[in-house]
Amino acid sequence: MVKRIPGLVGISCCRKAFGVFGMLNHAASDTYVRAVDQLVGGAPVLIPANGESADISTLLDRLDGIILTGSRSNVAAKFYGGPAQRPDEAPEDSERDQVTLPLIRGALNRGTPVLAICRGLQELNVALGGTLHQRVQDIEGRIDHSMPMQSHGAVRTGKAHYVSLRSGGILATIIQSDLLAVNSLHNQGIDCLARGLLVEARATDGTVEAISGTSGGYLLGVQWHPEYDFDHDDASKRIFESFGTAVRVGLGR
What we know:
The chain is of the alpha/beta class. Helices cover about 30% and strands about 25% of the residues. It has a single domain (about 10-250), classed as Rossmann fold. It is built from seven helices and 13 strands. The strands form three sheets. A nine-stranded mixed beta sheet has the order 4-1-5-6-13-12-11-8-9, sandwiched between helices. Strand 2 (about 15-20) and strand 3 form a beta hairpin.
């Protein structure tokens, strides 16, 4: 009997300080790893945020799918021509950006499936030439999309508002609905949408909440965090399952 080898699914990491001495580590939340293990059906591989040292070509040669994770850090303003950000209010991780931005462009050229979550959606837009709002909550008429400062995890990551999905779009087809309740834990948001991207969902205040690619292949970005509740929320489960299907199709399975 031939053993079936699962696809390799890359999960982007951030540089984060851990321990009493604040040593830098490359880290991604366990929720992404579990989603790949349990729903995507691939072998999770953590992609370090090692900046210019990253061998993008080798990563793309090996990976069969890529998940761009959420993070507390913001996409560095220099990559989209934005104003300088205050480090105490908006920490940046340009080492991560130097990995993910070229990785995104290379993945699209090769047709590698990409699922972009929260910061990942913002990276996707910037990688293709779009721009970002640094603090959506400071824009007149917008609601506060930032993370609730609650110690209770279920409250912090619970549903915060509704988004309207593009009727007949890829996300509405996956979710099988035109309306969805989502959590909300972000400051940055899409300002000018990059060419080659299509809006798949908006919040009630007009904020772009989901995007897809226009050139074919699996390319989906969501501004919320389906990895927090994929084990009990049907819509979140469907998102990861759709990505897993795309990875398997790419492998000819």
